[in-house]
């Protein structure tokens, strides 16, 4: 099994929103995703989708996008991003998802030899716009990450024959790559890899590549040419 990741699909069938406001590189990006995905991902592969999947405001609209993604090769694992306003209670979401599409929220899941954990994350202390409301969300996301990593451990994430991937939507570090509550937990639980998105217009050469020896991957779609990135083969 190969593990791929791609964040920030920003699809919008039900709520059209031109992404070219973020730069000309976004022109025609849905077509690019749907054309390039099958060139690298096979049916037996796992694709992690850490957030900002659809601009829809309600689940029915998001499902119009997700059904198309589900039809692509591979088993998909979804995580909520800051723009996934449509994301309902996790039980309702899981009951509504198309086949071969899973979701993580405050927990973890196992797909064969792979354990996937994750949480959205948030702005971190030191960010210019970080305020009291952000601090409350930051602390809540810290606890959600701890719960998810504990769930991963119960699923055998630490076993030698298991590959544990942590999904975040926001990057785990603070401004300038400084430590945060998220990186503290990453150091404590030591997943085999961390994937994150959210950052647009950031070249791979300037992205976080590792934390305390743990590989980290920026998988925002525009930074990858709208092609899923290979994380590992297990």
Automatic annotation (TrEMBL):
Gene3D superfamilies: 3.60.21.10. Residues 1-200 form the Calcineurin-like phosphoesterase domain. Pfam families: Metallophos. This is Metallophosphoesterase. It comes from the Bacteria.
């Amino acid at each position: 099994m190969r593990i791929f990741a791609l964040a920030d699909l920003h699809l919008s069938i039900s709520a059209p929103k031109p992404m070219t406001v973020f730069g000309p590189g976004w022109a025609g990006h849905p077509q690019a995703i749907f054309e390039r995905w099958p060139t690298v991902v096979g049916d037996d592969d796992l694709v992690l989708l850490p957030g900002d999947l659809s601009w829809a405001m309600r689940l029915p609209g998001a499902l119009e996008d997700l059904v198309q993604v589900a039809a692509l090769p591979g088993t998909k694992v979804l995580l909520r991003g800051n723009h996934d306003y449509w994301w309902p209670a996790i039980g309702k979401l899981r009951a509504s998802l198309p086949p071969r599409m899973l979701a993580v929220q405050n927990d973890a899941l196992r797909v064969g030899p792979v354990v996937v954990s994750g949480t959205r994350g948030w702005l971190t202390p030191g960010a210019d716009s970080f305020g009291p409301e952000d601090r409350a969300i930051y602390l809540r996301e810290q606890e959600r990450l701890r719960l998810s990593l504990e769930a991963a451990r119960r699923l055998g994430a630490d076993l030698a024959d298991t590959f544990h991937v942590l999904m975040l939507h926001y990057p785990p570090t603070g401004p300038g790559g400084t430590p945060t509550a998220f990186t503290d937990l990453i150091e404590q639980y030591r997943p085999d890899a961390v994937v994150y998105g959210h950052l647009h217009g950031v070249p791979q050469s300037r992205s976080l590549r590792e934390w305390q020896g743990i590989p980290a991957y920026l998988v925002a779609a525009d930074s990858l040419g709208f092609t899923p990135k290979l994380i590992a083969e297990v």
